[in-house]
Sequence to fold (561 residues):
Amino acid sequence: MQSIMIVLFGIIGMLFGWFFYSKFIAEKIFKMDDNFVTPAHELNDGVDFVPTNKVVLWGHHFTSVAGAAPIVGPAIAVYWGWVPAVLWVVIGTIFFAGVHDMGALWASARHKGKSMGALSETVIGKRTRALFMIVVFLVLLMVNAVFGVVIANSFVANPSAVFPAWAAIAVALVIGQLLKKQVPLVPLCVIGVAILYASVYMGSSMPLALPSELFGLSDKASWIVILFIYAAVASLLPVWMLLQPRDFINGMQLLVGLVLLYGAVFVVMPDITAPAFNTQMASETPSIIPLLFVTIACGAVSGFHGIVSSGTSSKQLNKETDGRFVGYLGAVGEGSLALITLVAVSGVMLAVSPQQWHEIYSHLGAGSVGAFITGGSNLINSGWGIPAEIAATLLAVMVVLFAGTTMDSGVRLQRYIIQEWGEIYQLKALQNGIVATLIAVGCCLLLAFGAGGSSGSGGMIIWPLFGSTNQILASLTLLVISVYLIKLGRPAKYTLIPMSFVLLMAFFAGIIKLQEYYQQGNWLLVGLDIIVLVVSVLVMLEAWSVISKHNRTAAQSASQQ
Fold:
């Protein structure tokens, strides 16, 4: 089996999704309207609410939702076999992720840029809001704490990625100022990406590393502290100054990376050595159903996307119809990254024979990002002749920059949630941006160092909860969109069917994990898992009550006419 067949299947499927399915959903179901005044215009404050060019906003949205997850998830899930992983990535992108992301963006923009947590009160009820926001905050806490560890580990393991990662911030600050002065976007894009790739080349010959111990902290722990200080400052800056240009440049460099990877597939056409369905799995491997559907989240569908869509992206939407380009095409971009990750970790560029592949993937969780960087760099080297060392640095930088942009947005989103709590409960202190940011970063650092000690890896303790919690959040987001559509008198099956499937898989996975945590005696995860599962049931019951009441009222009105 040649990888070219996987690539063609994925490309054709995603093109169908973009040109036909997304157009149908946007025009016939969401009924996006260019004349609608978006929150970016209505509430323009020059900091968070800023009308933004749809290409720039796409760059922000795409890189914020992507992070390292569309690489990590597929690179792990391929252990069950490449066929189920490819099918879930392609089908999930077309019918789940694209509709989820675009729908959250649309619904939030229709409600003054409210987050999905706050929006759930308007659509369903007050009790739902309180429950929903608990899950949202928990997901953000996990993402920020863990991505801090991921980036720090990458900096320690790949010191050649340090210089280009920080150089990207300097480039973004300059581009942000130039865009503000209305300098044309295209030349800025070309120059910015060129400088970024020049920094990658420089980084490969100029590795940077912190001392092994600094103020009593290890180099990894020191990086975690530095990263959160940066994220706190970045989350308070106007979006046009750093967030937008940084994410845009990262989005463009990812496009270049995708062109290099996909182009190399067409040139080399490497064979697949991974099994279509793995029949030689380790005895302790969990069932593919439902675990596949929570292992591959970003790249198929992810609740974190709804937080970004309704948190930062909806506040920057210039025209409502831009939501299709930003939301759905952002999901397609992420699906494309997940698909090429599967190719990189499934073929001869990683393992020349099935036997060698099984040696690398000896158990679930083996391979992961390291397998992607190895397989991807060998693919680029074979297809384009770029030295494998430079190609590996390029891919490592891509992972770091993606994780960094997600962390930037994640801390800002945590700040929004805390400020919304301040507005809801009339606590003026929490409405202050600086106070809210300090609380957000403080929670992350408390988890990182309070639970993880001097290593700063505390986020990893609750990370096992992320898969099921994140997908439960995706189902709740689809539920809110569905209830809103029902109230508008529009067909809701295009969101209700994906919602039902994702909820079933995520809830089932949560139950399986609950049993695992209980057997391990991990009472923290037992407690948090129970909270998430109970919250999901309560929200569903609240929504069912609202839908039933709405249908009764509609039936009574019809009978009286």
User: Anything to note?
Assistant: Residues 4 and 269 are 6 Å apart (CA to CA). Residues 523-560 form the longest helix (38 residues).
